[in-house]
Design a protein that fits this description.
3 domains; mainly alpha; 55% helix; 211 residues
Length: 211
């Protein structure tokens, strides 16, 4: 039976360890979503592979049990926020590593403005500064459920809860400066467009000389 104390690996190592395209993709994912190691990416790839295998098996079967399992699978991916309520098995087959990476707690902490970068978000989570639905979560790879999306915040006993904390003040000033820069770019673009339209409207038509 094997040793029950030894947990089974939740991922598989790539069959081709030196595949260039895969290595470049993993580096990009680590940079974009704040993964700590490649093993974390492999775990999510294994999870998606399991979803696809289940989907194919359920779709190929016509039994009542398969129908029930299919409903549970669609409900699960909906609750995870991976697909919408009208999703089909074909949609499950189309899920990518980017889809599930966006559901990680790290990504939500950054998108809600609680951290500036995925690396900083990862640090806040590991140091137990983040609450999800009232509970402290210290796993950066925690999949945020659809019902938990609006319940992510700093813990009450966290120093980051104080709006006067230097980190919070600096993040607020940076976001304000970024907003001002974006507004200036929009105004500049509008001015350039209006000038271009004015020049076009006042451009004298070219009259060809009669021979």
């Amino acid at each position: 039976m094997g040793n029950i104390k030894k947990l089974k690996k939740s991922y598989e190592r790539p069959k081709k360890p030196w595949e260039k395209d895969r290595i470049l993709q993993e580096k990009e994912l680590i940079k974009k979503y704040g993964y700590g190691t490649k093993k974390e990416i492999w775990r999510f790839n294994a999870l998606l592979r399991g979803f696809r295998q289940q989907s194919r098996a359920i779709f190929a079967s016509t039994s009542a049990q398969s129908k029930k399992e299919g409903e549970n699978l669609l409900k699960k991916v909906y609750n995870m926020g991976l697909l919408d309520e009208k999703a089909t098995f074909d949609d499950i087959l189309g899920l990518t590593i980017d889809d599930i990476s966006k559901r990680r707690l790290v990504n939500f902490v950054v998108s809600k403005g609680l951290a500036r970068t995925p690396t900083q978000a990862r640090q806040f989570i590991v140091h137990k500064h983040i609450l999800v639905n009232g509970n402290k979560v210290d796993s950066p790879n925690y999949i945020v459920l659809r019902k938990e999306e609006n319940n992510i915040e700093f813990a009450d006993n966290s120093v980051l809860k104080d709006p006067k904390h230097p980190l919070i003040v600096s993040m607020a000033s940076i976001s304000k400066d970024t907003k001002l820069e974006e507004e200036e770019k929009i105004v500049k673009k509008l001015k350039e467009d209006s000038k271009a339209d004015f020049k076009t409207a006042n451009k004298k038509p070219v009259v060809e000389e009669k021979k």
